[in-house]
Design brief:
The chain is an alpha/beta fold. 36% of the residues lie in helices and 17% in strands.
């Protein structure tokens, strides 16, 4: 504590030349509050940022200085030091530019010192002072709200995304000069005529097109039934069949028959899309996401990675939805093996020199494969031109541990007859979805005390304790004949519970158990 009688005038001016602002950082989807303090001290003109900034954040020195001068504010011709606290946490990205500018403006006296005490400031600044949108705003605002911060200043282009978070007062600005005037200062600026409100998620509409209707798929009633079972119980599925039988078409329509996402799940999916910059302009949706990486995708693009703090991959973008791997045997063996842990745990941990990043990855895996490299090893196999060793090599990438984690394995045969006319003759996705929703609701009520939402999440202990003795005898017979592994036995029981939910029964009997074992071992 320093009184005015004891402190000389120069000492009092140094103590007062500290400005502060609040921002929010992200490590994966984990957010944390950052207190940004700017200290203007005597010395040669120099601007430094400390507190573990990455390269893009260190470059904020030039952006912030130019933006403040473009707003008519006088830049301190002394030493300026900006600290990002907590200093032990790595910070990245340009979303802290506006908060850094606000702290320096506060320290220099352009705006009052205490005007931003309870306000989070977010945004990237351009050299001319314009404020650009940022990615990851949704998880940032959710964390700020949980920490009791109800007022935020965001780029004007991010206002629609900010409106998705209730109980948060979001103020959108286009220029640093607007921030100065908002805080009671005086600015002299001109917003360029050519500036356009660039949405951080421009082009995201094409990322997640609406799913097609199941009645557009001709035939394949058995495959459609298997997809219904997979959607109702949250089971992984693999389709094997020759080219042109509709495997890809069937997979692309799975989100249309799945149970709608709950409000909390919608926010989870939207947060991931916001972080990736693919949040649609219409905001959140109850349709589960659908990701279909190309078979040449690298391990990092599938699981996540990159320099510094890792970025989310396809399995995280498919969280609460579908990860579809078309031509699955064409993926590299290493890429396929990386799916083993996320399939069991529901998350992926990416370790780098600067720390470990955790991303959610609770997805349904849908695989499609040809029976051989040429695709015609079905029926009598007369059209197949592959050698036996080529067939073995083709499927060897789908190792036993991977296939053992696939609940449903079905054959998709060629369609032998098409119906004339333009009116779809099959069952619509809406009708299938209604049955799936009823089955999901039954499972949720059954597992309410455990917090599970579908049969695929039930533990082996619960399954063995609640499945009838006659049904378990069939499982033991399959174990003894080596048709099932112990993991496969649990997954077959989960399938049986889903089949009983779809048929309206309270628990599976021998019939449902036999059908579950058959769907798992590709004996249809």
């Amino acid at each position: 504590v320093c009184s005015s009688d004891l402190c000389p005038p120069y000492r009092r001016s140094v103590l007062m030349a500290i400005g502060s602002a609040l921002s929010v950082g992200l490590i994966g989807l984990k957010a944390f509050i950052i207190q940004i303090q700017a200290f203007v001290s005597p010395g040669l003109p120099y601007f430094s940022i400390i507190g573990l900034p990455d390269t893009s954040l260190s470059e904020a020195r030039e952006r912030v200085k130019s933006a403040c001068q473009a707003s008519g504010a006088k830049w301190p011709e002394t030493r300026v030091t900006v600290n990002l606290s907590p200093a032990s946490m790595p910070k990245r990205g340009s979303s802290h530019d506006l908060a850094i500018a606000a702290s320096v403006l506060s320290a220099s006296g352009t705006i009052p010192h205490d005007c931003l005490n309870d306000t989070v400031v977010l945004g990237e600044v351009n050299l001319d002072g314009t404020v650009l949108p940022i990615n990851g705003l949704l998880p940032i605002l959710l964390h700020a709200r949980d920490q009791g911060v109800c007022k935020v200043i965001v780029p004007h282009a991010n206002l629609d995304e900010a409106a998705l978070v209730p109980d948060v007062d979001a103020i959108g600005i286009r220029h640093v000069g607007e921030l100065i005037e908002l805080m009671g200062g005086t600015a002299n600026y001109t917003i360029p005529d050519m500036i356009r409100d660039v949405d951080a998620n421009d082009g995201a509409m094409s990322v997640c097109p609406p799913p097609g209707d199941m009645n557009e798929v001709m035939g394949q009633e058995t495959a459609k039934w298997a997809l219904e079972v997979a959607a109702a119980g949250g089971h992984h599925l693999m389709m094997t069949g020759p080219p042109g039988t509709g495997k890809t078409m069937l997979a692309s329509r799975i989100p249309g028959i799945m149970s709608p996402l709950s409000e909390s799940e919608q926010l989870e999916v939207a947060s991931i899309r916001s972080l990736c910059g693919t949040l649609p302009s219409y905001g959140i949706s109850d349709v589960p996401p659908f990701e279909a990486p190309h078979h040449t995708a690298s391990t990092a693009s599938l699981v996540g990675g990159g320099a510094g703090l890792a970025q989310p991959g396809a399995i995280t973008r498919a969280h609460r939805g579908i990860l579809f791997m078309d031509e699955a045997p064409e993926f590299s063996a290493r890429t396929l093996q990386t799916l083993r842990e996320p399939l069991e745990s529901g998350y992926v941990a990416i370790s780098r020199a600067k720390g470990t990043t955790y991303y959610p990855a609770r997805f349904q895996l849908i695989m499609a494969a040809n029976p051989c490299p040429c695709g015609y090893a079905y029926g009598n196999g007369e059209r197949c031109t592959c050698r036996e060793k080529d067939r073995i090599k083709y499927f060897s990438r789908l190792s036993g541990p991977i296939l053992d984690r696939i609940d449903i394995q079905i054959e998709v045969p060629p369609v032998e007859r098409i119906n004339p006319g333009t009116v779809p003759s099959g069952e619509s996705s809406h009708a299938i979805r209604l049955r799936v929703m009823v089955a999901r609701q039954t499972a949720q009520e059954r597992f309410r005390e455990f917090g599970w939402v579908c049969n695929a999440q039930a533990t082996g202990t619960w399954l063995r304790a609640n499945t009838s003795t006659k049904a378990i005898e069939l499982v033991n017979h399959a174990l003894a004949s080596e048709r099932l592994s112990l993991r496969g036995a649990d997954r077959a029981m989960r399938l049986a519970w889903t089949l009983s939910d779809l048929s309206g029964k309270t628990s599976p009997g021998p019939e449902e158990m036999m059908q579950g074992i058959s769907m798992r071992t590709r004996l249809t």
